[in-house]
Amino acid sequence: MFRIAICDDEMLFTEQLKEMISAYMMDKGFVFKIDTYSSGEELIELGIEIVQYTVVFLDINMEKINGIMAAETIRKMSRELFIVFVTAFVDYSLEGYRLDVVRYLLKGNASFKNTVNECIDAIMDKMNYSVTKKEFDFKEGKKEVSLERILYIESNLHKLEFHVMEDTLKVYTMYETLNILEDKLSEYNFIRIHQSYLVNIKHIKNVARYKVILSNGVELSIPKVRYMDVKKKFISSQGEV
Question: Is 218 helix (H, G, I), strand (E, B) or coil?
Fold first, then answer.
């Protein structure tokens, strides 16, 4: 299913954009679902669950958490999701380049509907967007997984549990040691915070009081001997978008 989010604080415009996108998707015969959000705060409260969407249409000029701030938060969790800026202005090109935005949609443009259709066409062309995936031989069967969708891997009773955000949070299991997985995934910013936990650093929301808080609210403990190293790596990662 092609899942789309629209985040805009103008209710009338949101409904108009939703109708345009729906008309395009139905004409193409796609299975889709569109959710709407009225503020940047409401959108980013989803945390890691935001990766359920294929594309997010973001109004730049919202109060408190604007579209650029929301896009920065999204990019810390995923480079895979497509972002489209919706704006009444055209002076955000540097931010768009930095945040890998697919298109700008200019409100009030006489050909706005055509621009929306062209934008979705471009996204369809980019659906082979390069993301790092690896195949794992899970007990549930072999499966190729986008590494950025793995929140953490837990060693539990001689097996590993992969906590992966798909449409919902899924758990896959395999027989392997966490030491071997740590070696394989170290170059992809997975860090060992505990004998039993290997965590994707981009999904760490905070490190405090000998625990990490993940973007979906899960808390994992850190032993004292690893705490300062984990905290330093987390702080270092915060400058990366």
Answer: coil
Q: What is d(CA 118, CA 199) in angstroms, rounded to the nearest whole number?
A: 38
Closest CA to 151 of 205, 207, 81, 221: 205
What is the rounded CA–CA span in Å between residue 77 and residue 13?
Answer: 28
Q: How far apart are CA 33 and CA 229, in angstroms?
A: 42
pLDDT at 239 exceeding the cut of 70: no
pTM for this predicted structure: 0.74
DSSP code per residue over 41-94: HHHHTTGGGGGG-SEEEEES--SSS-HHHHHHHHHHH-SSSEEEEEES----HH
Give Cβ neighbours of residue 234 (< 8 Å, ≥ 6 apart).
201, 204, 206, 207, 212
The rounded distance, in Å, linking the Cα atoms of 117 and 72 is 25
pLDDT-derived band at 227, boundaries 50, 70, 90:
very high
Check residue 237 and give its pLDDT.
Answer: 86
Tokens of 158: 């001689």
